[in-house]
Amino acid sequence: MKSAVITKTLIASLGLFAVFAPSQASAQLLPQPWVSVGGQDGEVTYAVGARALDFGVEVGRGPDGATGVDVLKFLSLPIISPYVGVGLYSEDKGVAFSGGVQVGATDNVFVGAGYNSVRGFNGQLGIRF
To answer: pTM (2 decimals)?
Structure first.
């Protein structure tokens, strides 16, 4: 009888440990910076950004000297990370919407492509620490 209680307690404890055990962190705590170059209306546009905990911030310069900030939300998948964002730009450009993907090229380098309604299509190159 005593061994049956110990066995049941051990099985229950292992089950609870499996349910409540901490899992591997899916988001990287160190920021992942990138640079972006693109074009809109025949002008070169550029931006710099950083991502941490599946959120990102991108500061960019668009056509006609418009500057702005975008806040991005990433969906972390094993190889590819799509994102969507919204931003605010000067020079009467107003609110901007953006979306794109970032793909891990190596362990420490990623590339991406995106679209921003103010800055147009862009390519991205970034590093992971």
So the answer is: 0.74
Among 44, 41, 40, 34, CA closest to 101: 34
The mean per-residue pLDDT over the stretch 12-17 comes to 54
User: CA 95 to CA 74: how far, in whole Å?
Assistant: 19
Three-state DSSP string of the chain: CHHHHHHHHHHHHHHHHHHHCCCCCCCCCCCEEEEEEEEECCEEEEEEEEEECCEEEEEEECHHHCEEEEEEEECCCCCEEEEEEEEEECCCCEEEEEEEEEEECCCCEEEEEEEECCCEEEEEEEECC
